[in-house]
Design a protein that fits this description.
This protein is of the alpha/beta class. It has two domains: 147 residues, Aspartate Aminotransferase, domain 1 (Alpha-Beta Complex); 219 residues, Type I PLP-dependent aspartate aminotransferase-like (Major domain) (Aspartate Aminotransferase, domain 2). Helix 8 links the parallel strand 5 and strand 6. Helix 5 packs parallel to helix 6 and helix 7 runs parallel beside helix 8. The relative contact order is 0.16. The structure holds glutamic acid.
C-alpha cells in the first residue's frame, strides 16, 4: 500500500508505561527472573464483593447494551459519592461511565480541544496526557513543577502560561509520577487563576484515596470551578480493578452531553458487567481501600528509606499515589560493565532491565529525564528485591 496512514497518529508516541509493563509480563511468562515495578498496578486482588456483583450481573443477564453514558444506578452512586466525599454537585445525568480513567481523559480532551488549542500540562506529567492532546490536534504547554516545590506548579506559573489560545489545564492530583499532592490552599490559588482566565479544568483524581500525610481536595470544590471542571476518576487503582476497565467523567452538563455523543459513536459504553462491578465497589464501604492505603504508606516509607541509602541526591517524599520519582542523574555519564554509557533515564532503565531484571520507567516518559519512576504497588518481597537490584545495578556502574 502506498496511501499514507493517519499523520496525527504517527505523530504521537506509544505509552512507555504500557510498553514496559507488557515487556516485563512477557519476560516473566517466558520464565525470566524479572521484578516489575513498571506499571502502577496494585498487587492486591479485586475485593470479593465486587467480583460477586459482577457474577450476579452475568447470571441475571445484564449482558446487553446499556445507554452510552452507562446504567443509571451506577451514575447515581457516583453522583452520591462525589457529593458525600468531595462536596460536589454533579447530577447523575452529568456522569458518564468510561472504559477506565484513561478513556475518561480522552473523552474530556475530545470534548474540549480544537486544532491549535493549548492545553496546560504541569510537568512532570503522566505519559498519556501530552500524546492525547497532540492526537486531538491540540498543543500541550508544559509548566514545570520545581523540585523545591515538590514538583507542583504555582498560581503565578499557571497565570504566566495562559493566553487566548489556552483551552484547559490538565491537573493530576495526587500526581503520577511524582506522588505530590496539592494542598487546599495551593488548589484554591490555582482555581482563582483558572476562573479568572476563564479556562476549563480537567482534574484526574484517580489516586484520591492514596494520600499519606495530608488530605485530598477535589479541584472542582472551589468557587466557580464545578461549572468548568471535568472530574476524572476510576476503580483501577482504588479497587484493584485495572483489567476491568471502568472509570468515569463528571462534567458540566453541556460537556457531559458531548461526551455521551462521543461515546455513543466510539465505544457505545463500557462493559455492562464492569459497570455492575463498579456499583459493587461504590456500595461496599472503605475497608479494603483503607487497608491498601496503610499498606502503601508502609511501602512508601520502605522505598524512601532504601532510596536514601542508594541515591546521591535525596528523593522527594511522595505524599500520595504509589510512585517514587527517584533522582538518578548523578549516575549519568558512567559506564555499564559492558562499556555502554548511561546517557539518561532511558539507558539506565534499559541497563537495569537487561542486567538486573528490574523493570522501572524512565523519567523521560514523564517529561523529566533526571529521574526514574518506581511503582510501589507491589509486595514487600518484590520491593525488597527491586531495591537490592537497583543498588547492585548502580554499584556496578563505573
Ligand atoms: N497508569 C498506570 C501507570 O502510569 C498504568 C499504565 C498506564 O496506563 O500508563 O503506570
Amino acid at each position: 500500500m502506498t496511501r499514507p496512514l493517519s499523520e496525527r497518529t504517527q505523530n504521537i508516541a506509544a505509552s512507555l508505561t504500557v510498553a514496559i509493563d507488557t515487556l516485563a509480563k512477557q519476560m516473566i511468562a517466558e520464565g525470566k527472573d524479572v521484578v516489575s515495578l513498571g506499571a502502577g498496578e496494585p498487587d492486591f486482588a479485586t475485593p470479593k464483593p465486587i467480583c460477586e456483583a459482577a457474577c450476579k450481573a452475568i447470571h441475571e443477564g445484564k449482558t446487553r447494551y446499556t445507554p452510552p453514558v452507562g446504567i443509571l444506578e451506577v451514575r447515581k452512586a457516583v453522583s452520591e459519592k462525589l457529593a458525600r466525599e468531595n462536596g460536589l454537585h454533579y447530577k447523575p445525568e452529568q456522569i458518564i461511565m468510561t472504559s477506565g480513567a484513561k478513556h475518561a481523559v480522552f473523552n474530556s480532551l475530545a470534548a474540549l480541544v480544537n486544532p491549535g488549542d493549548e492545553v496546560i500540562v504541569p510537568a512532570p506529567y503522566w505519559v498519556t496526557y501530552p500524546e492525547l492532546v497532540k492526537w486531538l490536534g491540540g498543543k500541550p504547554v508544559f509548566v514545570q513543577g520545581k523540585r523545591e516545590n515538590d514538583f507542583k506548579i504555582t498560581a503565578e506559573q499557571l497565570k504566566a502560561a495562559c493566553n487566548e489560545r489556552t483551552k484547559a489545564i490538565l491537573l493530576n492530583n495526587p500526581c503520577n509520577p511524582t506522588g505530590s499532592v496539592y494542598s487546599k490552599q495551593e488548589l484554591a490559588a490555582l482555581a482563582r487563576v483558572i476562573v479568572a482566565e476563564d479556562i476549563y479544568c480537567i482534574s484526574d483524581e484517580v489516586y484520591e484515596y492514596f494520600v499519606y500525610d495530608t488530605e485530598f481536595t477535589s479541584a472542582a470544590a472551589f468557587e466557580g470551578m464545578e461549572e468548568r471542571t471535568i472530574v476524572i476518576n476510576g476503580f483501577s487503582k482504588s479497587h484493584c480493578m485495572t483489567g476491568w476497565r471502568i472509570g468515569y467523567n463528571a462534567a458540566p452538563a453541556p460537556i457531559a452531553k458531548i461526551i455521551g455523543k462521543i461515546q455513543g459513536q466510539a465505544t457505545h459504553h463500557p462493559s455492562n458487567i464492569a459497570q455492575y462491578a463498579a456499583l459493587g465497589a461504590l456500595s461496599m464501604g472503605m475497608e479494603s481501600v483503607n487497608a491498601m492505603r496503610a499498606a502503601f504508606k508502609k511501602r512508601r516509607d520502605y522505598m524512601l528509606e532504601r532510596a536514601s541509602k542508594i541515591l546521591k541526591t535525596p528523593a522527594n517524599a511522595p505524599q500520595g499515589a504509589f510512585y517514587l520519582f527517584a533522582p538518578v542523574s548523578d549516575f549519568y555519564g558512567t559506564k555499564t560493565p559492558s562499556g555502554k554509557t548511561i546517557g539518561g533515564s532511558v539507558e539506565l532503565c534499559q541497563y537495569l532491565l537487561e542486567s538486573e531484571g528490574l523493570a522501572i520507567v524512565p523519567g523521560a516518559a514523564f517529561g523529566d529525564d533526571s529521574c526514574v519512576r518506581f511503582s510501589y504497588a507491589a509486595s514487600d518481597e518484590m520491593l525488597q528485591k527491586a531495591c537490592d537490584r537497583f543498588k547492585r545495578g548502580l554499584k556496578n556502574l563505573v
